[in-house]
Specification:
alpha+beta, Endonuclease I-creI, 2 domains, four-stranded antiparallel β-sheet, 12 helices, 10 strands, rod-shaped
């Protein structure tokens, strides 16, 4: 089953654009991500573009047919030899005199020299927002990934050097995406980590199906998290009620041991007996059983607790065992 990132690439790779500037910007970013310059006889240039995605390889071929007038292309596939490895597709622009003009048009050459180290901030292909969006779309096709929406939110563009990563980061910031940039081993990563930003970026790339799936998954995720919070809250409240009922039963047992239950006022005695008989009732259920309000039951239970505390710490000598009777001694009788 293809990954979510692959599904997104397959979707946007099928799109073709009416404006030539968008096609140019997208192809320029694709070649910056996955292309290498080759050299032929008589100082001619060529390009090898590699990708693991068949749809992206077809997209490059279609762009070259529209934008690469006078250049000859070839395509080949290398089957992966190891399990779980993707096939590699090579789109080759055969070295010829016409390739130099294409590279100049894409901003990859300037004045007859390669321009790969000098990033393309001032070029015409990046002066309009539509071209900047197309450039980022091409960068995603060539070296981007996005987590499936059920997981944590993360979209990234992997650049081979800091200068290119800085350009991508600048373009995303100009389009008001809260992008970050980080170094990862020998590459640089420009990333988005907010759900809304990831959705907006997918929308900018015109990945409508991906946006819909992302929104559905995010809604389900938010509902599940809300349910979990409610369950956790209910569990915590239930535990508090169980703990409170346990303490109330202990208070009643202290009063019973002291023989104080029968001397209590009728309301307190009824409440103590009801709580002892029904230890699992909530406060609201206990109040309904006694036909009083919940605050009224709380008030009675607090009184029972206060009385129990007195018997715990102020028991008579006979209860504490520190008087003559408590020590098992007989009272002393004086002779008359």
């Amino acid at each position: 089953m293809p990954s979510f990132a692959t599904e997104v690439k397959n979707e946007i790779a099928r799109l073709m654009y009416d404006q030539a500037c968008d096609r140019t910007a997208e192809m320029a970013a694709l070649l910056r991500m996955g292309g290498t310059i080759t050299f032929g006889p008589h100082r001619t240039f060529g390009v090898n573009f590699t990708t693991e995605n068949a749809a992206v390889a077809r997209k490059m071929l279609n762009l070259l047919k529209l934008e690469g007038e006078g250049v000859r292309t070839e395509i080949s596939a290398r089957r992966a030899r190891r399990l779980n490895k993707h096939n590699n597709y090579l789109v080759r622009i055969v070295p010829s005199p016409g390739v130099e003009g294409l590279l100049e048009h894409l901003g990859l050459m300037q004045g007859g020299s390669l321009n790969l180290g000098q990033e393309q901030k001032g070029l015409a292909i990046l002066r309009k927002n539509c071209c900047r969006a197309a450039y980022l779309r091409g960068a995603f096709l060539g070296g981007g990934s996005v987590n499936r929406p059920e997981a944590h939110y993360h979209l990234e563009l992997v650049a081979p050097n800091y200068a290119f990563a800085h350009l991508l980061h600048t373009l995303m910031r100009r389009l008001e995406f809260p992008a970050g940039i980080a170094e990862r081993r020998d590459v640089y990563v420009v990333y988005l980590k907010e759900g809304d930003a990831v959705v907006d970026f997918l929308g900018m790339m015109q990945a409508g199906a991906a946006v819909e799936r992302f929104e559905v998954a995010r809604n389900v995720k938010e509902v599940r998290e809300q349910v979990n919070r409610l369950v956790n809250c209910e569990t915590a409240n239930l535990q508090k009620a169980v703990d409170a009922a346990g303490r109330q039963i202990e208070d009643i047992l202290v009063l019973e041991k002291a023989g104080a239950i029968q001397s209590l006022p009728d309301q307190l005695r009824e409440t103590a007996e009801a709580r002892k008989v029904h230890p699992d009732l909530t406060m609201a259920e206990l109040a309904a059983l006694l036909c009083v309000s919940k605050p009224g039951v709380n008030h009675r239970l607090r009184k029972l607790h206060a009385l129990a505390e007195k018997y715990r710490f102020h028991q008579p000598p006979s209860q504490r065992g520190d008087g003559p009777e408590g020590r098992g001694e007989s009272p002393v009788h004086k002779d008359k």
